[in-house]
Amino acid sequence: MIQSPFFLVLDVGTTGVKAIAFDKQLAQLARISETLTLRHPKRGWVEQNPQELLKRSLTVLHNAVKHGHLDVRDCLGIGIANQRETTILWDARTGKPVYPAIVWQDSRTQRWCDAFTKKQRAFVQQQTGLTIAPYFSASKTHWMLDHVPSTRILLEQHRLRFGTVDSWLLWNLTDDHQHLTDETNAARTLLCNIHTHSWDNELLRLFDIPSSILPRILPSRAAFGRLSERILGRSIPILAVCGDQQASFYAALHATSDRSTKVTKVTYGTGTFITQSLPSFQLQQNFSTTIAPHPRGRTFILEAKIQRGGRELESLLAHPKKRDAFLRRLALDADQLIRQLPTPPKTLFIDGGVTRDGLMTIIQRDISGIRIQPLSSFDGTALGIAALCQDSLS
Question: Rounded to 5 degrees, what angle do the CA atoms 366, 367, 369 make?
């Protein structure tokens, strides 16, 4: 058995869930992963089973400790990273979901989103940094309230709860059913004012979402309760929660010696995401504006998304020419967005499964003409959460 203090990170993505143990120097001690199922019941619909998300999470947490030969008594704390925007409603009394999780990729609410006026869109963007789109949680929640009959009954009985994946996990991993989220996940719902870091009553009225179902918002580094003793045999503090892209952005911040400089990062995951820190709130065409944790608290960041990523690459791994052509197209797409950033980056931090063999580093460098710095782990999301846990104790 390894006798070493460690942080345990639960990283619940779109296609898989991982548990990774990091030592105090943020080196990996153990890594366990399991795949997740995505359902497409109709064209444009993407769903997951919330109970599967929980079951797989419990499995990888247990196996990371077991197969890593770690002593749970040495665990300093746990952190959670998650796919953002994916929306779950559940019954507070029974703990059962009222409907499958509607995943961030789901587009069933496109027509509803298109009906908002130009004035309403401008207001929402100023308050949230986001455009009104099916991607975010507000329209998914509204759809469930309109189409799932049990939601209205539970609402009347004060039993309905809303959460993104982090909230669902916290509710189930803590004995006292903590109903919480962090600022980065809240900022991707269209319901949170990112200037005040709180739920916004005008936004709630606009999208017809009752405030009673919402979790309490905390900073990404905060006391999120304690992991139930029944899970690993010991109660462990949950020190950090953060959306996946903001978590990997924090890992990039951690990797730079000057925390005052602007940081630019590309994550090549299920989708490909480009982010850059901002000195203050601003809007930029083709980008959303959101928030990320920072050693001094929080920072505004720009974010853009490219649909293609690791999922498409998997089918091309046995065909080197097709693989290389795909990576080149992906790098060209990323470069187009990089050139639109308000500050041309001198260094580009990269992470994600697509980067693990080093080929993407070379291709992106040759196309963009920028110094490319891979994070110390291609699991940048988990690395960022471990860094948040570490900083929460310093």
Answer: 65
- Pair 180, 170: CB distance under 8 Å: yes
Q: Which two tokens stand for residue 67?
A: 């197969």
- If one counts every other C-beta atom within 10 angstroms of the C-beta of residue 376, the result is 16
pLDDT tens track, the chain, 394 positions: 667 899 999 999 998 999 999 999 999 999 999 999 999 999 999 999 999 999 999 999 999 999 999 999 999 999 999 999 999 999 999 999 999 999 999 999 999 999 999 999 999 999 999 999 999 999 999 999 999 999 999 999 999 999 999 999 999 999 999 999 999 999 999 999 999 999 999 999 999 999 999 999 999 999 999 999 999 999 999 999 999 999 999 999 998 876 667 899 999 987 899 999 999 999 999 999 999 999 889 999 999 999 776 777 777 777 888 888 989 999 999 999 999 999 999 999 999 988 888 899 999 999 999 999 999 899 999 999 999 999 998 8
Q: Which residues pair with 22 in a beta bridge?
A: 7, 28
Predicted TM-score (pTM) of the model is 0.94
The first and second tokens of residue 338, run together, are 């990089």
**Tally of CB atoms within 10 A around 287:** 22
Q: Is the dihedral of CA 280, 283, 286, 291 positive or negative?
A: positive
Closest CA to 366 of 389, 318, 332: 332
Helix 50-67 to helix 165-173 angle (10° resolution) is 60
Please tell me the CATH code under which domain 257-382 is placed: 3.30.420.40
Residue of 240, 347, 352, 242 whose CA lies nearest to 292: 242
**Smallest Cα–Cα separation from 348: which of 357, 339, 356?**
339
Is there a shared CATH topology between the 6-243 domain and the 257-382 domain?
yes
Domain 6-243 has CATH 3.30.420.40: yes
DSSP letter (8 states) at residue 215 = P
Q: Which helix (H) or strand (E) holds 170?
A: helix 165-173
| HSE-up of residue 24 (Cα within 13 Å, Cβ side) | 8
Q: Which two tokens stand for residue 294?
A: 């920072």
Report long-range pairs for 148-152 (Cβ below 8 Å, ≥24 apart). 148/89, 148/98, 148/99, 150/91, 150/98, 151/89, 151/98, 151/99
How far apart, in whole angstroms, are the C-alpha atoms of residue 17 and residue 32? 8
Extents of the domains making up the chain: 6-243, 257-382
